[in-house]
Design the sequence.
């Protein structure tokens, strides 16, 4: 399930350039069910030794200016945010909370919810062209010199596809209770634009390498739907892997 939130502000929304954790905190804060909020924040949905939150969100969308010396970004009204989840409860709880709330803050900025738009179900085919609304992450943790190190992969590297597919299969299994018969799922980059689409995001003092841009998804439409709802790749609940169809 997916919604778009439209925020209106009297002046500007001023946030750190790397603001993913602020938007994530806003979403968690606006879940009324405290037990569910605590479950998502502290535990999440588990499969083997992996944990998933099964939601994702876009970058903030709208006109903005960079306050370079301050390391801040200032958005002009209106500002929109796309939020998507594989569990309907997340969206319905949050939407109801936002509608009832008299006072909302995005970071230190007072904001007003002007509208909440519910998206139609995607109903994908086995081949669609997409645009990332927040960049996609594929990573692996490796041991090096007795210490853990995170290795990131781009959509142009061989390891990217299997990592994203295996991550998606786990999320699908959590949502549906079993794996699909057709496990085909591929992410095909649109041309050789690796350097152009690369993004380095600071999330709570951890640097994450992710990729924006245009891609084609091919494979089982049920898996494409799951990727649409929960996000493509990993670290979705930190604001990565949200996308929209562009054809």
Sequence:
């Amino acid at each position: 399930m997916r919604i778009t939130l439209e925020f209106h502000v009297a002046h500007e929304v001023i946030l750190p350039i790397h603001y993913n954790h602020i938007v994530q905190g806003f979403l968690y804060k606006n879940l009324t069910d405290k037990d569910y909020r605590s479950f998502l924040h502290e535990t999440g949905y588990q499969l083997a030794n992996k944990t998933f939150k099964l939601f994702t969100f876009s970058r903030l969308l709208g006109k903005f200016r960079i306050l370079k010396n301050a390391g801040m970004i200032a958005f002009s009204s209106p500002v929109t945010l796309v939020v998507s989840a594989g569990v309907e409860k997340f969206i319905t709880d949050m939407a109801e909370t936002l509608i009832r709330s008299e006072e909302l803050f995005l970071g230190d900025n007072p904001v007003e919810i002007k509208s909440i738009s519910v998206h139609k179900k995607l109903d994908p085919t086995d081949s669609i062209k997409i645009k990332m609304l927040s960049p996609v992450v594929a990573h692996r943790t490796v041991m090096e010199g007795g210490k853990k190190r995170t290795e990131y992969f781009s959509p142009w590297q061989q390891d990217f596809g299997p990592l994203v597919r295996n991550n998606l299969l786990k999320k699908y299994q959590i949502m549906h209770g079993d794996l699909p018969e057709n496990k085909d799922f591929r992410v095909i980059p649109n041309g050789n634009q690796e350097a152009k689409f690369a993004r380095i995001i600071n999330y709570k003092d951890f640097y994450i390498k992710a990729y924006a841009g245009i891609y084609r998804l091919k494979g089982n439409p049920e898996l494409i739907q799951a990727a649409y709802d929960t996000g493509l790749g990993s670290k979705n609940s930190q604001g990565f892997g949200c996308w929209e169809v562009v054809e």
Residues 160-176 form the longest helix (17 residues).
